[in-house]
Write a structure and sequence with these properties.
With about 160 residues, the protein is α+β, with helices and mostly antiparallel strands. The protein has seven helices and four strands; from the N terminus they run αααβαβαββαα.
Amino acid sequence: MLAGTVEQNLRTASLLHGTPFDEQLARRCMAEAELGHLDWTKPAVELSGGEKQRTALVRSLLLRPSMLLLDETTSSLDPTSKEAVEQMLNRWAEREGAAMAWITHDMEQSRSVSDQIWFMGEGKLLERGDTKAFFQGPSTEQARRFIQKPLEREADGDE
């Protein structure tokens, strides 16, 4: 987060780009990210880690990007916040016509938010294809092992 209040953080993108601040959009996105309750005059430094993460994401959305590169966007969020962010981003993509590329190690998230999977290992693209087909039968041994590990943990009751 940047120094200043929640509102100052949200207005930063508009200030830097010389565009009008869309308060209605900011409030809608904050509500969709489960942050509608926040006092915008609160110093941003006082937000919890998850609140900071979601506020920064909303700040980025206020630029109305046509492409979002989401690198472990929900990795440190609690399950409720994670689901809210996933739903918010899916609605965003539908409303704005934006494309999204999710980078995640979360198998369930991969299944629920993607149409295609690009599986990388050892710095190389090893597989690319339909999400359902990937999870039903990956073509590389690395992908099979990667998918199997979370399933083994679930079977053991660790997840």
